């Protein structure tokens, strides 16, 4: 079945209900993963998908909650039989990050390779493609292009536009403020998968007033998500990356629907949308 699945819909806050942000596209036998938040391989396992089956991964930006399981996907892909290089697409800096992680595991991995004697050593090879100005990847009936969004001071940060069979369009926002680039890219999209910042309850033991202000500033409020979806004239709005992971769903839907009259889906882990 051709589908897109929200593997994880959470944020940096630990949650057993919402794992770290990650989205899986399955289309015409190909599998692409967008971001690799905490617990992504467990969610793949729940779908009976091996990490070795992934054709490539796409990173939106270098924030820990989006890349923390990058090595886990890489190494478990080898463990589950990957026979081709691991392909990573992402922003400038992702190559250095991945090389640094590999360096940290160098002795452990070397010992594992020597002892386990697995036949698929080529599965440990990898290729990292960093986005220069823009990215356009085409495989069979799928094309994927990058969208520069605004998550400053995390720069660069990207969303992705996925076009299927030259007809159906899916846009993944990544982490962003209100973004004109995103609205332009998502114009008329069949599905817009967008992050949302709801509200942080102030806790003086783990945050300052500036903490709340700054986190809110580089995400998108429910009202702005609604405005983006309306201006882009998308057919379906799917919400993910909820900050915080526990919230009043009906209130969120009401706040967005005041600006967007179309279909609103409150995402949840393992929610699949047929394509």
Explain what this protein looks like in three dimensions.
The chain is an alpha/beta fold and about 280 residues long. It has one domain (about 5-275): 4-Layer Sandwich (Metallo-beta-lactamase, Chain A). The chain has nine helices and 14 strands. It has helices at about 40-45, 65, 70-80, 95-105, 105-115, 180-185, 210-215, 220-230, 250-255, and strands at about 5-10, 20-25, 30-35, 55-60, 85-90, 125-130, 135-140, 140-150, 155-165, 170, 190-195, 235-245, 265, 270-275. α8 packs across α9. The longest helix is centred in the middle third of the chain and has 11 residues, at about 95-105. It is globular. The chain starts with a strand and ends with a strand. The model has no long low-confidence stretch (mean pLDDT about 95).
Please describe the structure with a list of short key phrases separated by commas or semicolons.
single chain, 275 residues, alpha/beta, Metallo-beta-lactamase, Chain A, seven-stranded mixed beta sheet, 14 strands
SSE layout and pairing:
Layout: E1 3-8, E2 22-27, E3 30-34, H1 40-46, E4 56-58, H2 64-67, H3 70-79, E5 86-90, H4 94-104, H5 106-116, E6 126-130, E7 136-139, E8 142-151, E9 154-164, E10 168-172, H6 180-185, E11 191-197, H7 209-217, H8 222-232, E12 236-243, H9 249-257, E13 263-266, E14 271-274
Parallel strand pairs: 3-4, 4-5, 5-6, 10-11, 11-12, 12-13
Antiparallel strand pairs: 1-2, 1-14, 2-3, 7-8, 8-9, 9-10
Helix pairs in contact: 8-9
């Amino acid at each position: 079945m051709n589908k897109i699945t929200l593997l994880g819909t959470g944020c940096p806050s630990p949650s057993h209900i919402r794992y770290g942000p990650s989205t899986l596209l399955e289309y015409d036998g190909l599998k692409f993963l967008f971001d690799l938040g905490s617990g992504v391989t467990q969610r793949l396992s729940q779908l009976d998908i091996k990490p070795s089956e992934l054709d490539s991964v796409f990173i939106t930006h270098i924030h820990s909650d989006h890349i923390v399981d990058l090595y886990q996907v890489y190494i478990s892909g080898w463990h589950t039989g990957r026979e081709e290089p691991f392909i990573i697409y992402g922003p400038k800096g992702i190559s250095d990050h991945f090389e640094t992680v590999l360096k940290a595991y160098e002795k452990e991995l070397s010992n594992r390779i020597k002892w386990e004697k697995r036949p698929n050593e080529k599965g440990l090879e990898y290729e990292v493609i960093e986005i220069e100005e823009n990215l356009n990847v085409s495989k069979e009936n799928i094309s994927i292009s990058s969208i520069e969004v605004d998550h400053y001071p995390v720069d660069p940060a990207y969303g992705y536009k996925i076009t299927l069979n030259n007809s159906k369009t899916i846009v993944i926002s990544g982490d962003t403020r209100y973004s004109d680039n995103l609205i332009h890219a998502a114009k008329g999209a069949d599905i817009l998968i967008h992050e949302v910042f709801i509200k942080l309850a102030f806790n003086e033991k783990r945050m300052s007033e500036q903490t709340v202000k700054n986190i809110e500033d580089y995400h998108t409020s429910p009202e702005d998500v609604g405005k983006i979806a309306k201006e882009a004239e998308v057919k379906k709005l799917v919400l993910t990356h909820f900050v915080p992971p526990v919230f009043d769903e009906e209130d969120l839907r009401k706040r967005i629907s005041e600006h967007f009259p179309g279909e609103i889906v409150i995402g949840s882990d393992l929610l699949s949308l047929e394509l």
